[in-house]
Specification:
Radius of gyration: 23 Å
Strand content: under 5%
Helix content: 55-70%
Low-confidence stretches: none
Order of helices and strands: HHHHHHHHH
Distance between the termini: 74 Å
Shape: globular
Number of helices: 9
Structural class: mainly alpha
Length: 241
């Protein structure tokens, strides 16, 4: 273990968390009106209808796969009767398909953004950097998926990356495990850390927005053509005029 390993696998992850949380709070307090994807559907919708579902649904499966692979220990899947070979087969099938869908979706969205004038004009420098890092993360993730399916302890991220990832939550980074991971897994991890570091300063921040207020809003009020306000009993959200 050397100082580079300590810097990369014990210091950098927490720096990323500080920037992610602090940047998100700053963005919310001082740039609420910029907290948006800056919708561009009015300018072009044909490519958007294809690229957006591919990207978002593919990314959802990728996130679920990361949660299962990094958080659930190997001993748990072994106890459940899932062999190492079966795990890698399903990881290759689901992860590979989801990864390629995500890559195809983001490629369509980037092509649309670059070739549609008004959409390209609304793209900031931070967003351009985000697209570069995002594509790099997806490509690196596909590479690690293929390496993991190839088998071999040197490509088994559940023995290296996963223990390190879980150790971060108890503030005891397992530097040795991450230092022993393959170069492709280390590169994918560093790109992921960079992506989350710049996250609050790009359009990706909209992922933290959930329209929870919509669930508790009053009913939409319609005026009936028959009768007046007394024609039906008052309900929540209705106002008598």
């Amino acid at each position: 273990m050397n100082w580079q390993d300590v810097l990369l696998w014990a210091v950098l992850p927490y720096v990323m968390v500080v920037v992610l949380v602090g940047g998100t709070i700053w963005r919310y307090r001082y740039d609420k009106f910029g907290w948006t994807t800056r919708s561009s559907e009015l300018h072009e919708s044909r490519l958007l209808r294809v690229g957006s579902p591919l990207f978002h649904f593919g990314l959802l499966v990728v996130i679920i796969g990361h949660v299962i692979g990094l958080i659930i220990p190997k001993s748990w899947t072994d106890a459940a009767g899932l062999s190492q070979q079966a795990y890698h087969v399903q990881a290759l099938l689901l992860g590979g398909i989801a990864g390629f869908c995500t890559l195809a979706g983001v490629a369509i969205l980037i092509y649309r953004r670059r070739t549609t004038g008004p959409v390209f004009m609304a793209t900031t420098r931070n967003d351009k950097l985000m697209y570069v890092v995002l594509v790099a993360a997806i490509v690196a993730g596909l590479a690690t998926t293929l390496l993991g399916a190839a088998g071999g302890e040197e490509h088994n991220y559940r023995l290296t990356v996963a223990p390190w990832f879980r150790s971060l939550f108890v503030l005891q980074p397992d530097i040795a495990s991450m230092a022993g991971a393959g170069l492709a897994f280390q590169l994918h991890t560093l790109i992921g850390l960079l992506l989350f570091t710049i996250w609050p300063f790009t359009r990706l921040v909209h992922a933290f927005t959930a329209p929870l207020g919509y669930l508790f809003r009053p009913y939409i009020v319609y005026r009936s053509r028959r009768g007046g306000p007394a024609a039906r009993p008052a309900r929540r959200g209705w106002e008598r005029i």
